[in-house]
Design a protein that fits this description.
By secondary structure, this protein is an alpha/beta fold. The protein is built from eight helices and twelve strands. The chain has two domains: 117 residues, Rossmann fold; 93 residues, Arc Repressor Mutant, subunit A (Orthogonal Bundle), CATH 1.10.10. Helix content is 41%, strand content 21%. Keywords: DNA-binding, Phosphoprotein, Transcription, Transcription regulation, Two-component regulatory system.
């Protein structure tokens, strides 16, 4: 297996990598979420081990972003948090398995092998809401059969909104998912929402993108 370990503790990362390498696997490492996203944009892995609590960009937001980018690699969350709500949050973010620290290396390897055999997620196909379709893997979106020409960030925002539609997505959720810990200035989100609205709504008779002032954004069907 080719495995990516995303873990902010060098000691923990080295222990995992040494064990898996001795077991015959190819292993690479990233020490925070931003580094993981950069690596995953360049290389393919069979499975990802993802720590939850990390600086700059935590594991949950990292997985949400890679799923929004259409990366279907199985993810095993590794964390000391063991409550049901924590586990559910991991699965909602796009995780495939959840292992609580401390753990046995043998169990970690068996779980990784099971995820690798299962292969990439099968639910990363086209997303639909009303007459809107979004394909995270190809970066394409259409409305009523018309292709929407969107930049990278407006497309990420649209992907998040259509995944949650018709539920409200808070402004902070958009910031966390798209930018992680590197939040832009106050005008950046507004300008990207404006760009998204111009492409998604302006050429069509009825709007889909709603802004609830002081709350967030949502998609509605005409």
């Amino acid at each position: 297996m080719k495995i990516l370990v995303v873990e902010d503790s060098p000691q923990v990362a080295e222990t995992i990598m040494d064990y898996l390498a001795l077991a015959g696997h190819r292993v690479d490492c990233a020490y925070h979420g931003q580094a993981a996203l950069q690596l995953l944009a360049q290389e393919r892995f069979d499975v990802i081990i993802m720590d939850v609590m990390m600086p700059r960009l935590d594991g949950l937001r990292t997985v949400e972003r890679l799923r929004a980018d259409g990366i279907a690699t199985p993810v095993l969350f590794l964390t000391a948090r063991d409550s049901l709500e924590d586990k559910l949050a991991g699965f909602r973010a796009g995780g495939d398995d959840y292992l609580v620290k401390p753990f046995a290396m043998e169990e970690l390897e068996v779980r990784l092998e099971a995820l690798s055999l299962r292969g990439p997620r099968g639910d990363m196909g086209v997303l639909c809401f009303g007459d809107l379709t979004v394909d995270p893997a190809s970066g394409r979106a259409t409305r009523a059969g018309v292709e929407l020409k969107l930049g990278k960030i407006p497309f990420q925002i649209l992907t998040l909104l259509v995944k949650r539609a018709p539920q409200l997505v808070t402004r902070q959720e958009v910031l966390d998912t798209v930018w992680g810990d590197e939040e832009p200035d106050s005008d950046a989100l507004r300008s990207h929402i404006y760009a998204l609205r111009n492409v998604l709504d302006k050429p069509f008779p009825t709007p889909m993108l709603e802004t609830l002032h002081g709350q967030g954004y949502r998609l509605v069907t005409p």
